[in-house]
Input
Amino acid sequence: MPALIKENMMKIIEEQPDDSSFDEILRELAFSEMIDKGLDESKNKRIISNEDMKRETAFMMRLRSCSICLKQASNISIPPIGT
Output
């Protein structure tokens, strides 16, 4: 199995243009790994419904929005009471 992984990585690297940057090649390798993992999860029925994904995404967006508000609020200077 490791030899196959190495062969796939080498193939991806060889397919990149000669002027590709290190970061561009790493991005391609990471993208390929994400696709392979997703296909494996799908094949092994480790999937969630579209509705569950929509709920998770909405929840994560609310968390992100909340954390942005908290960060902005932390920059506000409130004087102590009685000054």
Observations:
- The chain has a mean pLDDT of 87.
